[in-house]
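[job 4417] fold queue: 2 targets
>>> target A
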Amino acid sequence: MLRIIFAVIVSIPSAIIFLLRAHYIKVHFNDYTEEDRYAFIKKYAVTLKNNARIETIGSGYENLPKEGGYILYPNHQGKYDAVGIIIEHEKPCTVVMEAKRSHLPLATQLMTVLNGTRLDRSSPRAQVESFNKIIENVKSGKRYILFPEGGYNLQDFRKGINCLKEFKSGSFKCAMRSKCPVVPVALVDSWKPFGQNSLRKVTTQVHFLPPICYEEYKDMTSRELAEAVRSRIEQKIQSVAAASQES
């Protein structure tokens, strides 16, 4: 909470400009390319990172598909997760976010500018419509960030448990139906920026793992694919932890 308050105070001038420009882009949406809108969000994501005393390092950029649409499936640790991925992901991508959270200040501007997809968990019909939108957009070359855990528990991380929750198999059906590459993303210490009551500089990590292409998962069930992605992310987190202990 302390870092959030500090970042908000330090970022007030930037935040005002961000809100005004985001509104302008919303009104003149068609005048901006996807690249323009992504660059705008990325610029202010970097500003937030710097003002909040956060360092983010990444790896595995070579694993990202060079062409076509795909879905990034990261583990979920906290409020900084999507920000960290956007900072490290060069090409334009957008976010799938739970509907209620997506209407919070700043989140709603991010979703509007990036043309993100809101997921209403209270309405099965709305969820189907959202997934159909994702499927069509991915087929047309769009890239999405979708958190298959659906949530996170900060208390676990504060206790030193860098664990993964169950990956919901339903979140992988849109990838399977669009036949797109599935890119596991391992986030390390991403909970720390806004999960610790401290202003000490923190470092988060974003690791893009080798994609699972359609030919590899076409005979899997959605549950098997979810477990495969979860397993790869878990292995990467464990290897990072082991390397850290050795050093």
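>>> target B
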Amino acid sequence: MTNNNLYQQAVEKFSGTKIAVIGDLMLDVYLWGNVSRISPEAPVPVVDVCRRTSCPGGAANVMRNISTCGGKVIAFGAIGNDQSGEMLQKELADLGVDNSGIVTSAKRRTTEKCRVIAGSQQLLRADFEDAIALEDDLREKMVYQIENLIESHAVNAVIFDDYAKGVLSAWMLERIIKSAGKHNVATVLDPKPKAGGVTAVKGLTLLKPNRSEAFALSKVHDTGIGRDPADDASLALAARKIYEEWEPEYLLISLASQGMAIFQQGQLLNIIPTMAREVFDVSGAGDTVAAVCTMALASGCDAETAAIIANHAAGVVVGKIGTAPIYKNELISALN
């Protein structure tokens, strides 16, 4: 049997996976239009808006990718008591996502990212958010629910999706990872190494930063941009430093046009070349990788195989405009 057939069999098993996703929920809003003149008030283009669309973003985009690939999702995160929160809840429900774990905070707005697109060119992004620590009682409520799901064997994996908006904290991950370790449940973190992001926790199944995040996490200076990743001493040092502090079972570093590097115990396992043919928009590609890689792990794949399948998925979504998910049939076609 060829590798492609093995990968496709793994994707077919995605429909049996149940994933809990906890992190920073967002609503991605797009204003689509055309530019034909410059404003007389300032040297900026005037966009004649033709339509408005919205879709789940941030951790909610991870949830969307799992759903469009056939998996079951239980959502955990925070929204505000506002129209954007209601819209996000509806869009997730329309995808078949279980919203019972989403909490409403009176102290924050639902995070909204509004992008203005003229033709295929993004002109502007406006962010509406309150990146403050979520109330501890709401955090405790979500952790308790996830622990119960793990202990009752109701989920195969947990994804932590951190955009440093204040939902996640280290103590939350430590408790969930401890429970997951007892019940053979995979745990995956997509980190954001900046103020408000989760500090180092040990015991993850997979830690998935991109290149810039990996160097920020490790506090190593990046001297290898453009170099073959297999011979990049600074990348190898960053991986070892991350392993010393975080001790994940696997480390998967996205390298943009150079593909991905996967490490075990700080040692390089493989460089996986990019599968992208055309790149129109990288928005949400990291979310797709986190979702697909976790589903593959939950389906019984080893980490290297899971990364290869996720790499194919990323190659598809960067060829789309806007925050777009991968669909199961698209992924199988890409694997062919």
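[job 4417] complete. Note on B: DSSP finds ten helices and 13 strands in the chain.
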